[in-house]
Write a structure and sequence with these properties.
Blueprint lengths: L2 E3 L9 H5 L4 E3 L6 E3 L9 H10 L5 E3 L10
Antiparallel strand pairs: 1-4, 2-3
The protein binds iron/sulfur cluster.
Iron/sulfur cluster binds next to helix 1.
């Protein structure tokens, strides 16, 4: 799983930071989200998915929300 945050969309609600504090934080200067772990540990995956779903501005994405990529 790889996490991407669109800081232009972020309005600093902090929902993601409460749900996955090891992955998201608010930047003290800008007040917007900062990704602490672009590739979070598997144990964080469900919290990250929950943050993606609940972000009120749709600022968060993950590149592999479910199953692993097929081998090529
Ligand atoms: S939940 Fe969304 S709007 Fe709120 S801090 Fe996180 S990324 Fe920003």
């Amino acid at each position: 799983m790889r996490v991407h945050a669109d800081v232009e969309r972020c309005r600093g609600h902090g929902v993601c930071c409460r749900l996955a504090p090891e992955v998201f934080a608010l930047d003290a200067g800008s007040g917007r989200v900062r990704v602490l772990a672009e590739r979070p540990a598997p144990a964080q995956a469900e919290a990250v998915r929950s943050a993606v779903r609940r972000c009120p501005t749709f600022a968060l994405e993950v590149d592999d929300p479910g199953s692993p990529a097929p081998a090529s």
